[in-house]
């Protein structure tokens, strides 16, 4: 079968031939790939950045945002059946810490976890993949065209869930109000797929959502945001320092920008008792200057929290599927507008960086377009 591989630490990717995996234990699930999303992490891997080949190998099959159809299952599998649409989660536990033992490798304490397509395990940019039932999540048939968004959506489901749990523990009014997010002013920074999906989840809870980016208001990302009832904030016209004064303080800030200077500056917009969750992973190591004393003073005197959040557990994928269904019934095919670019595998590997300013989610198509690739 065909797959897309890189040599970690070097630039570029190529289509390779790999043995087709088979169901070999009662818990195995085999999935035929339909499409796989491409994100900032993939782009970083493709440019020679953060990535690790499986032990003893030089090549890594990339891809961690998968969507496919179950083609065969082991005798003990009950979560999915042949013909179901499904995805596999990304991270695999270290086998040594309590979090991983509890199925929460997203909270691994040793750092020795592996990630399919990123760290030490081949990923999903391949015609077929096999993994264990505990990592599979069924996707309802009505979500065929957007199921590839499940992984980035799982990231924001975890981030928002963590923020809510923290607020429920700290803030008396959050503890007594099941719909604490309703009407709350929230800022999402960085309107890539993660930011827009975050805005979508917050809108589903009735939050008043502002999305910050630095692109033209008529371009794809702001247009998608306003289509779900969010407000666009052009950071070139309203700098972060002025957001609080011009729009108001934010009860929640969700960062998906990956820009370290902005990630610190966003504390400026946070309301007293506010929560700020960072999901954007910056590349590179350029130092940033911050007003440290001022920042810590504000954090303490205003009872604020800043939380980092990465990866997601199976349950977050499940919540993602539920939210996608709700979003589908509320906004219909507007959801499909998040997928803006489609490549056949060979087309993807031969273009050095096809990323265009108007792109939201780029995907590699493994069925229709794969033929002849
Ligand atoms: C992925 C996560 C992963 C993280 C760190 C992100 O792009 O979506 O699943 O844990 O990178 O490798």
List the helices and strands and how they pair.
Layout: E1 2-6, E2 14-17, E3 28-38, H1 40-46, E4 60-61, E5 65-73, E6 85-88, E7 91-92, H2 98-101, E8 114-116, E9 120-121, E10 128-132, E11 136-139, H3 150-170, H4 172-175, E12 185-189, H5 193-204, E13 208-213, H6 220-227, E14 231-234, H7 240-246, E15 250-255, H8 260-265, E16 270-278, H9 292-301, E17 305-308, H10 314-331, E18 339-343, H11 345-350, E19 361-365
Parallel strand pairs: 8-9, 12-13, 12-15, 13-14, 15-16, 16-17, 18-19
Antiparallel strand pairs: 1-2, 1-4, 3-5, 3-10, 3-19, 5-6, 6-11, 7-8
Helix pairs in contact: 3-5, 3-10
The structure holds beta-D-glucopyranose (BGC).
Residues 39, 41, 64, 90-91, 115, 118, 151, 155, 310-311 line the site of beta-D-glucopyranose.
Sheet with most strands: 7 strands, mixed
Query: Gyration radius, to the nearest Å?
Result: 21 Å
Bound compounds, each kind once, are: beta-D-glucopyranose
Overall SS class? alpha/beta
Alpha-carbon distance between the two ends:
12 Å
Strand content: 25-35%
Number of strands: 19
Low-confidence parts: none
Description:
- It is a single chain.
- The protein has 373 residues and is an alpha/beta fold.
- It has helices spanning 40-46, 98-101, 150-170, 172-175, 193-204, 220-227, 240-246, 260-265, 292-301, 314-331, 345-350; strands at 2-6, 14-17, 28-38, 60-61, 65-73, 85-88, 91-92, 114-116, 120-121, 128-132, 136-139, 185-189, 208-213, 231-234, 250-255, 270-278, 305-308, 339-343, 361-365.
- Helix 3 crosses helix 5 and helix 3 packs across helix 10.
């Amino acid at each position: 079968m065909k797959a897309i591989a890189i040599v970690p630490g070097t630039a570029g990717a190529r289509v390779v031939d790999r043995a087709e995996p088979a169901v070999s234990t009662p818990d195995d699930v085999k999935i035929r790939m339909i499409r796989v999303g491409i994100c900032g992490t993939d782009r970083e891997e493709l440019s020679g950045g953060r990535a690790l080949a499986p032990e003893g190998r030089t090549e890594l099959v990339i891809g961690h945002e998968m969507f496919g159809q179950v083609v065969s299952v082991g005798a003990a599998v009950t979560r999915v059946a042949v013909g179901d649409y499904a995805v596999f989660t990304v991270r695999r536990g270290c086998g040594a810490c309590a979090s991983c033992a509890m199925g929460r490798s997203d909270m691994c304490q040793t750092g020795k976890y592996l990630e399919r397509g990123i760290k030490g395990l081949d990923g999903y940019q391949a015609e077929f993949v096999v993994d264990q039932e505990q990592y599979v999540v069924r996707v309802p048939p009505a979500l065929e065209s957007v199921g590839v968004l499940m992984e980035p959506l799982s990231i924001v489901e975890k981030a928002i869930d963590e923020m809510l749990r923290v607020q429920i523990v700290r803030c008396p009014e959050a503890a007594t109000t099941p719909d604490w997010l309703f009407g709350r002013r929230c800022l999402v920074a960085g309107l890539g797929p993660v930011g827009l999906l975050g805005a979508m989840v917050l809108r589903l809870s009735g939050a008043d959502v502002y999305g910050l980016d630095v692109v033209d208001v008529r371009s794809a990302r702001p247009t998608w945001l306003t289509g779900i009832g969010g407000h666009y904030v052009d950071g070139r016209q309203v700098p972060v320092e002025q957001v609080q004064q011009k729009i108001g303080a934010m009860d929640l800030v969700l960062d998906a920008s990956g820009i370290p200077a902005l990630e610190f500056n966003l504390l400026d917009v946070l309301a007293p008792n506010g929560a700020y969750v960072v999901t954007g992973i910056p590349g590179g190591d350029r130092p940033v200057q911050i007003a440290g004393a001022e920042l810590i003073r504000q954090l303490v005197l205003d009872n604020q929290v800043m939380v980092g959040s990465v990866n997601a557990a199976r349950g977050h994928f499940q919540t993602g599927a539920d939210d996608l269904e709700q979003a589908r019934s509320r906004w219909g095919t507007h959801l499909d507008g998040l997928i803006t670019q489609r490549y056949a595998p060979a087309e993807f590997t031969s273009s050095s960086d096809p990323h265009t300013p108007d792109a939201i989610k780029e995907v590699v198509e493994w069925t229709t377009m794969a033929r002849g690739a």
